Predict the structure of Phospholipase/Carboxylesterase.
Amino acid sequence: MQVHTFGPLNCRIVGNPESARLTVFFCHGYGAPGTDLVALGEELARLRDDFREKIAFVFPEAPTSLDAEGIPGGRAWWPINMAKLQQILQTRELEKLTKAEPPGMVDMRKQFIAFLDEYRERYGVAIKDCILGGFSQGAMLTTEVTMHLPETPAGLCLYSGTLLVSEQWQELAKQKAGLPVFQSHGTVDPVLPFEAAEQLRDLLENAGLDVTFFPFPGPHTIPMPALSATVNMLAACLAARTES
């Protein structure tokens, strides 16, 4: 595993970025350390032999430390008002979640795109050869980033994410028609409502994106069957690059 800094963000890399045909950026969730999803990339590489040779897995680290919030080693892409989120969950007023723009999200999107641009320049990687994704807040961030990219990436991989700024995403998503999306979500997720995930799925599908929706009977997590399904998505993206 390599550790690097590109633009404003640190990251860890599994695989060889110099020779990779596909680059996968996975962003961790709120409160997790920067290393949180590294094991996910290693597991995906283990599940299929050619992934280790042909895919570079990149794990950016959120810039904000949560040590002062009582979460040692935890990081955040932007602040989350947990009391407000819990109130939304209790009242089921999902529009307060799905239509809202979290403070700090736009600035973080700009920082992430600066990171992505510097990484791509360093290794000569085109946007069309990148998959963006993440877990929870990391999934929210990479959805926001994908919507604002000037080109369409190879794919979007969302684990337990949610719908935000729905009116903006609804319009921007039309420019990404055909984009392969893998989206998994637990039906009893106590953190981000399953109903909001369904709304995100519907928004993306209605805009013409190619969504594979993977509901599972579980909480706010990434189950092994979701990883197995992710293998299929990555394999399809690799195959498309072989054919082109």
The chain has one domain: 2-243. The domain at 2-243 is CATH 3.40.50.1820 (Rossmann fold).
